[in-house]
Amino acid sequence: MADFLGKVYKYERSENDEAYLDFLGIQGDNRAAYLNAKPSVKLTKNGDNYTFDIMLGERTISNTFQPGKDFDEQMAPGVTYKSTCIVESNKLLQMQQHPSGKLITITREFSPAEMKATTTAEGWSGSATRYYKAV
């Protein structure tokens, strides 16, 4: 995992985001913001803590966590999820408790060239994938 720590990955494309948002019932401005976002992301480590940064233009959303411990994840201004992350080799596995009560799982797989984030949700048979290119 150390090869990927501190490396910035820029959003490139996605698959099945619309169906994922439909399943969660996300509409309006929040839906548009998610679909139009083209963030960069970065994972860093400091001692036992990791920080996952989502960079959206001038704004950065930073969430610091210890693997295996619950934390409050800031998603957007005023939107917080309960999350737990596990780091395994080149993967960051994240379990989020959506405000609807559904469990969301995001598996981020890092390689030298890209980061692939695959999202599944409890009760949904599909998956959504976002691809990021190393910069």
From TrEMBL:
<dbReference type="InterPro" id="IPR031259">
    <property type="entry name" value="ILBP"/>
</dbReference>
<comment type="similarity">
    <text>Belongs to the calycin superfamily. Fatty-acid binding protein (FABP) family.</text>
</comment>
<dbReference type="GO" id="GO:0008289">
    <property type="term" value="F:lipid binding"/>
</dbReference>
<protein>
    <submittedName>
        <fullName>Fatty acid-binding protein 1</fullName>
    </submittedName>
</protein>
<dbReference type="InterPro" id="IPR012674">
    <property type="entry name" value="Calycin"/>
</dbReference>
<dbReference type="Pfam" id="PF14651">
    <property type="entry name" value="Lipocalin_7"/>
</dbReference>
